[in-house]
Amino acid sequence: xxxxxxxxxxxxxxxxxxxxxxxxxxxxxxxxxxxxxxxxxxxxxxxxxxxxxxxxxxxxxxxxxxxxxxxxxxxxxxxxxxxxxxxxxxxxxxxxxxxxxxxxxxxxxxxxxxxxxxxxxxxxxxxxxxxxxxxxxxxxxxxxxxxxxxxxxxxxxxxxxxxxxxxxxxxxxxxxxxxxxxxxxxxxxxxxxxxxxxxxxxxxxxxxxxxxxxxxxxxxxxxxxxxxxxxxxxxxxxxxxxxxxxxxxxxxxxxxxxxxxxxxxxxxxxxxxxxxxxxxxxxxxxxxxxxxxxxxxxxxxxxxxxxxxxxxxxxxxxxxxxxxxxxxxxxxxxxxxxxxxxxxxxxxxxxxxxxxxxxxxxxxxxxxxxxxxxxxxxxxxxxxxxxxxxxxxxxxxxxxxxxxxxxxxxxxxxxxxxxxxxxxx
Length: 425
Prior knowledge:
Layout (H helix, E strand, L loop, with lengths): L7 E2 L8 H4 L4 E6 L3 H16 L6 E7 L23 H7 L2 E11 L4 E6 L4 E5 L2 E4 L3 E3 L7 H4 L6 H14 L10 E5 L3 H18 L6 E5 L14 H11 L1 E4 L4 E5 L2 E4 L4 E3 L2 E4 L3 E3 L16 E2 L12 E3 L4 E2 L13 H20 L12 E5 L5 E5 L4 E5 H15 L7 H7 L9
Parallel strand pairs: 1-6, 2-3, 2-7, 3-4, 7-18, 9-10, 9-15, 10-11, 17-19
Antiparallel strand pairs: 4-5, 5-6, 8-16, 12-13, 13-14, 20-21, 21-22
Helix pairs in contact: 2-8, 6-7
């Protein structure tokens, strides 16, 4: 995805010369400017400010561009506000942004290799490194998946799906044109599927005969959402006109349809793949235990358990949220708070502040269910508190306000990064 060229610029590691270490600036490098990375940068800057050591610690965040992609909203159809610019915020809090991608982590020498957006390679030294590189869509070896399926994992792919659907309106009406199959019946799959009927009617006309099918390998829809909200989810899917196939997977995809594990073939020109996520491959470069999603086992302070001076946060971290055996999910809800703790602790170790153990005991979910509305649940057993219009209003509040970055105001951003802040969205 990136050009492999340019000159390797070797930057001497901090503290190579002990006589210089007393006066040289200490460095925090953060990989990724998603929810976890952005909040790690804010929280680290806040800790440095609290210690009065702004001139002694340099914070650099590395990502392809200084934008926060609002991934939880990519099943929607309005993309204008899906990538807010973080550059003014980073400037306000004194964080440097480097346009590029961290490609290699050298824990032994406290350095990371960066491929810059300009194609140049740079080696950055660090005193503390925060891996906040997020996750990627799980893409197994299904014939035709990469060539013919769409997804809503990244902004570019969500826009490609939207352009494809709109282009179908100019083709002859057939059952295949008017059929969408969503492969994966988890959180994203359900939101995508329930949104799709009204989305297709807006494109093809309100009287169009459309068909939406969601396919899930587990014996139930929304397997990770638990049994409590499931009857409501099933009700919403039925009311939206979405067909459900459980205990079924996609075994082959081509330009004209999808073949299921049951042997059934569905003629369609649109397959949307939503079958789970895996931690960014960079996580595999960190020694120690990883879970089945590729996440690094973190200690209570979000340090990588097996590597000194590296913190993991967001979708690359396997972290306990409480003492009841629950762990953070790969969601922005957990990434925001994980980022705050990782950033604070990485900086705190350098500036002499107390580190604080990550805790996020309150857990909520808000699942969009298209024209039916939405459900809002509380607790790991997901007790339903709001549904239909009330749930939809809460979902809209979360999607358009709660998860967006703070304004480019230093004091306001630092106030929101307070680890005692009760906001969990």
